[in-house]
């Protein structure tokens, strides 16, 4: 998929998430997400932080690396999540369509964040946002190269992952079939009920 199309999908997911966030009750903003230790508001603030991270702000975030990568990101997300809801929504209005991510990543990581974190938010709240299977496939291929970071490298050596809604097959072993978004969620270590061996 060309870079321009990747950004189109990323922006579409950010805007879809913004629409969901605008409809949440105060109680829903404080609900746990699928990410352990992250509230909905923390994840929402984290997603829209990506296009805002220039050199100085990236260096500040990296100052927490002594906690490990995941600890650093969690702390930053929780800090950003303490902002008033109106401020977080205003950030989506200003930044959702900006074709930019943190300086330390490729153009595909913002797509991963947009798709996966949208699901992290909407699923516990009983809401749905669809992701195009072809976009989820691009995100999953990038996650595959980062599997050590996600702790899911074993998936590709122990299973043959087969998407049921697009042409995507990866890994070896017993076949695991599911829609592409479900496979992406599995690849990032999220629970899913829609994968069948």
Defining key terms:
197 residues; mainly alpha; 3-stranded mixed β-sheet; 11 helices; globular
Summarize the helices and strands and which ones pair or pack.
Elements: H1 3-22, H2 26-29, H3 40-49, H4 55-62, H5 69-81, H6 85-95, H7 109-122, H8 133-145, H9 147-150, H10 153-158, E1 160-163, E2 169-171, E3 175-178, H11 180-187
Parallel strand pairs: 1-3
Antiparallel strand pairs: 1-2
Helix pairs in contact: 1-7, 3-5, 3-6, 3-7, 7-8, 8-11
Structural account:
The structure is a single chain. This protein has 197 residues and is mainly alpha-helical. It has two domains: 3-122, no CATH class; 133-187, no CATH class. 56% of the residues lie in helices and 6% in strands. It contains eleven helices and three strands; from the N terminus they run ααααααααααβββα. Strands 2-1-3 form a three-stranded mixed beta sheet. Helix 1 (3-22) runs parallel beside helix 7 and helix 7 (109-122) packs across helix 8 (133-145). The protein is globular. The mean pLDDT is 89.
**End-to-end C-alpha gap:** 29 Å
What integer value in Å does the Rg equal? 16 Å
Residue stretches low in confidence (pLDDT < 50, at least 5 long) are: none
Number of DSSP strand runs: 3
Choose one word for the global shape.
globular
Q: What share of the residues lie within helices?
A: 55-70%
Q: Indicate how many domains the architecture comprises.
A: 2
Structural class by sheet pairing and helices? mainly alpha
Mean model confidence by pLDDT: 89
């Amino acid at each position: 998929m060309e870079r321009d199309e990747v950004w189109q999908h990323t922006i579409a997911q950010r805007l879809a998430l913004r629409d969901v966030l605008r409809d949440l009750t105060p109680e829903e903003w404080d609900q746990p997400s699928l990410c352990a230790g992250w509230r909905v508001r923390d994840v929402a603030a984290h997603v829209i932080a990506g296009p805002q991270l220039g050199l100085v702000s990236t260096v500040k975030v990296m100052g927490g690396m002594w906690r490990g990568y995941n600890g650093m990101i969690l702390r930053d997300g929780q800090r950003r999540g303490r902002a008033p809801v109106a401020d977080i929504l205003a950030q989506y209005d200003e930044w959702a369509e900006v074709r930019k991510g943190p300086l330390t990543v490729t153009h595909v990581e913002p797509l991963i964040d947009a798709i996966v974190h949208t699901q992290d938010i909407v699923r516990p709240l009983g809401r749905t946002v669809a992701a195009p299977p072809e976009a989820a496939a691009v995100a999953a291929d990038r996650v595959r190269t980062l599997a050590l970071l996600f702790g899911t490298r074993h998936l590709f050596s122990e299973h043959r992952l087969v998407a049921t809604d697009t042409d995507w097959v990866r890994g070896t072993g017993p076949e695991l079939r599911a829609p592409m978004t479900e496979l992406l969620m599995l690849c990032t270590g999220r629970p899913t009920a829609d994968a069948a061996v």
